């Protein structure tokens, strides 16, 4: 005896085939969204680290520095530690403290002649240190953030 198949039963297994076709596209979109989110988060972390480093320069630093440590070194170490605690490796982070009027010159925060002058904290990290997926050396690039601040450690005269 032969069974007559209805149109409903002829589609058995079609859902599995359709899913097999669509699944790689859905996975690529999900992985792409995760990677874009990580880059956005890392860029925000770089900007926050630059701001917090610059804020340190405007504070009274008495008692905050170790023996022989300069304010520039402390700022750089603090920025790298902040980023490392948020998953960005210290060795992929570069910190620069530059004169705002002439960004090619380094800026010494401790120098008395630099009191109340503008400076820039430049923080950059390699994309390969931020990305969850491997990055080919030729595709790597630098993400960066810059914050301009005033060296607020001025001598008060009476």
TrEMBL record:
One Pfam match, given by its short name, reads TadE
Looking at the record, the residues that make up the TadE-like domain are 13-55
| Entry keyword set | Membrane, Transmembrane, Transmembrane helix
Residues annotated as transmembrane: 12-34
Q: Does the keyword Transmembrane helix apply?
A: yes
The record, for InterPro entries, names: TadE-like_dom
Q: What is this protein called?
A: TadE-like protein
Q: Which organism is it from?
A: Pirellulimonas nuda
């Amino acid at each position: 005896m032969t069974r007559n198949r209805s149109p409903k039963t002829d589609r058995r297994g079609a859902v599995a085939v359709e899913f097999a076709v669509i699944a790689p596209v859905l996975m690529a979109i999900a992985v792409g969204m995760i990677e874009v989110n990580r880059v956005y988060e890392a860029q925000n972390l770089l900007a926050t680290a630059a701001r917090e480093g610059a804020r340190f320069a405007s504070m009274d630093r008495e008692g905050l520095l170790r023996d022989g440590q300069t304010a520039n070194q402390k700022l750089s170490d603090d920025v790298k530690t902040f980023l490392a605690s948020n998953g960005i490796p210290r060795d992929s982070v570069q910190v620069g403290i530059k004169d705002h009027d002439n960004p090619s010159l380094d800026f010494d925060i401790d120098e008395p002649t630099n009191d109340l002058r503008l400076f820039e904290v430049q923080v950059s990290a390699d994309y390969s240190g931020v990305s969850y997926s491997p990055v080919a050396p030729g595709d790597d690039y630098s993400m960066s953030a810059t914050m301009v601040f005033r060296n607020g450690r001025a001598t008060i005269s009476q």
